[in-house]
Design a protein that fits this description.
mainly alpha; 8 helices
Length: 232
């Protein structure tokens, strides 16, 4: 997951027009993948293992609210545009992404602890989201005055907090039940898809563009649903 942060370097070899064409469809795909991972895998598996308890939904809402608070108090935006010029935003993006990746590591690792298959699906859904995000974030750092080398290094460091969160969850799992972190991560996924990614898709206009984005979104959902059927 940390290595995915280096995907931003491909923006150096693409024209701005090409980058704009591919990023929004990728955002649509990742939105569908995140929602599919949350609703078709993480929530059902938690209910199957723990029963239909109110604590599951409290954990789900806690995961949703944590990311809401990050946006409210850090003015965090999952920006997928390469045209942002505000230099202070570059530091906010790194801080917020570090927190985001740390929380993601907690959630995905807890999914692996619960069930290997759920862990793989959770990671794939998170990775599908990270690719367009990192493309956009890298572009923001460059446009904010960072050198290419510095942007890659610090983007990678902020992504490495994913590993820290995962290791903490792994060692905690020997002492406490970390299953509650799975719906917590599902809440993260739902918030990112609904609050950050889908509004980004809706900024586009034109029948052909909208159709492509809808199809990519549905493909993300369908892919996670098919995997669910295959695992059953």
């Amino acid at each position: 997951m940390s290595s995915i942060a280096l995907v931003g370097s491909v923006t150096l070899f693409l024209s701005e027009s090409t980058l704009k064409k591919i990023i929004t469809p990728l955002v649509a795909l990742s939105a569908g993948s995140l929602l599919g991972g949350a609703f078709f895998h993480m929530i059902p598996e938690t209910i199957d293992k723990l029963g239909n308890q109110i604590s599951i939904y409290l954990s789900l809402m806690a995961g949703f609210l944590v990311f809401f608070c990050l946006e409210q108090f850090l003015h965090w935006q999952h920006s997928h545009s390469t045209t942002q010029q505000e230099k202070p935003l570059t530091y906010l993006i790194l801080i917020a992404d570090g927190l985001h990746n740390f929380i993601g590591g907690l959630g995905v690792a807890s999914a692996f602890v619960m069930d290997l298959r759920v862990g793989i699906i959770s990671w794939l859904a998170a990775a599908a989201h990270e690719i367009p995000q990192e493309l956009g974030d890298f572009g923001v750092l460059i446009s904010g005055g960072w050198s290419k080398k510095k942007a890659l290094i610090f983007n990678f460091i902020s992504a490495a907090t994913f590993l820290l969160g995962a290791l903490i969850t792994y060692f905690l799992s020997f002492r406490v039940n970390v299953d509650f972190l799975v719906p917590f991560a599902a809440g993260n996924f739902i918030y990112i898809a609904a609050s950050d990614l889908i509004p980004e898709i809706k900024k586009e206009s034109g029948i052909s563009a909208n159709l492509i984005h809808l199809l990519m979104f549905l493909f993300g959902l369908l892919l996670l649903y098919v995997v669910r059927l295959a695992f059953n």
